[in-house]
Structure formats: structure tokens, C-alpha cells
Amino acid sequence: MRALVAQLSNYLCRRKVGVNLRFRNFSSYNGKDELSIEEEAERKVGWLLKMIFFGTAGVAGYHFFPYMGDNLMQQSVSLLRVKDPLFKRMGASRLARFAIDDERRKKIVEMGGAKELLNMLSTAQEDRTRKAALHALDALSHSDEALASLHHAGAVSVIRSAPNSLEDAEVERFKLSLMKRFQDLKYDVSS
Q1: With 70 as the cut, is the pLDDT of residue 16 above it?
Q2: Is residue 91 a contact partner of residue 73, using CB atoms and an 8 Å limit?
Q3: Ramachandran region of residue 56, left (φ > 0), alpha (ψ -120 to 50) or beta?
Q4: What's the CA gap between 79 and 59, in Å, rounded?
Q5: Among 43, 98, 127, 135, which has the minimal tally of Cβ within 10 Å of its Cβ?
């Protein structure tokens, strides 16, 4: 059988001698070329997959990020109404991060965040919860309108009645910062 295959290949090669020689002379095919072709194909497929991934992430982000504005602030205010102190701290921390300009601070106050933070501070049983509430109130106090609504909600008496922390000096620092801010804007802090 092998002999027959060898004769057949000789017969075929003799008929196309010029083609085979030309193919062998002008071909640059070798083992290294095969590896480089495979690497190039893998690189192109890798870039294609990356483009598909980033395209999908972009489309998902385009549909997801509009929900992160007011809706996320509203969820953060809602977290302050939960009984669990961990969720309250998470909501207060979020509000402190959102309160970066007057417009957002005003929005937080309109959503009831200031009143909920004062309620959280007055009912807090542990220092970490008081600290989170005071930090968020301090972040809100940088707006004059928010500070006015805090004063009308009775923030001065709530802040004064919050116990000082023996373990965390930041609680006292936030309290002093808030009281100083009320005094700077000539609010009555004697109550």
C-alpha cells in the first residue's frame, strides 16, 4: 500500500514539477510563521473580545448611571429610617459623600435627610452611629440654606444633647464644628 502511495505521489509530482518547485521556492512557510500567525490571530481575537466587553459595559453603564443621581440620594435617606445602626451609618456616609455642593445639599434637605440625620443622632446608641450622623450633618452644614433648615429642625439642642465619645475624638470635633458654624451665621445656640 505504501509503495502504491509513493508511486502515485511521484506521478503527481512529476506532472506538476514546475508548480511544486515554484511553490517551494517562493513560500516563506515554516514553523515560526505558524506560531506568529497563531499569536496574531489570538491577539486580534483578544482585542475583539475586549471591544465587545467594553461595549457591553458602556451600554450597561449608559442605562445604569441615570439611576444613581436622585434615586441613590433617596435610597440613602431611606436607609436612615431603618432600625439597624449599620444601615443608618451607611446612609449617613453616603449622604456625607453626596453633600459636595449647595445644590446637592439642598436636595438632601428637601428629601428629608437633615431631619432623619437629627433623628438618627438623637436615637443613636453607639459612638460609631453618632459619628456618622455628625459627619453627615457637618457636610450638610457647609450650605447656608441647609444650616438654616437644620436650625429650624432643632439641630442645636440635638447636637448639644449628644453624648461625647471617650474613644473617638472626631465626634467632639464634628460637634464643635457644627456649633461654630451655627455661631458664625449668628444663630441662637443658647438653647
Answers
A1: no
A2: no
A3: alpha
A4: 29
A5: 43
Condensed to tens digits (0 to 9), the pLDDT of residues 117-137 reads 999 999 998 989 999 999 999
Q: How far apart are CA 117 and CA 74, in angstroms?
A: 13
SS (H, E, C) the chain: CHHHHHHHHHHHHHHCHHHHHHHHHHCCCCHHHHHHHHHHHHHHHHHHHHHHHHHHHHHHHHHHHHHHCHHHHHHHHHHCCCCCHHHHHHHHHHHHHHCCCHHHHHHHHHCCHHHHHHHHHHHCCCHHHHHHHHHHHHHHCCCHHHHHHHHHCCHHHHHHHCCCCCCCHHHHHHHHHHHHHHHHCCCCCCC
Whole-prediction pTM: 0.63
Per-residue pLDDT tens over the stretch 166-189: 777 888 899 888 989 888 887 776
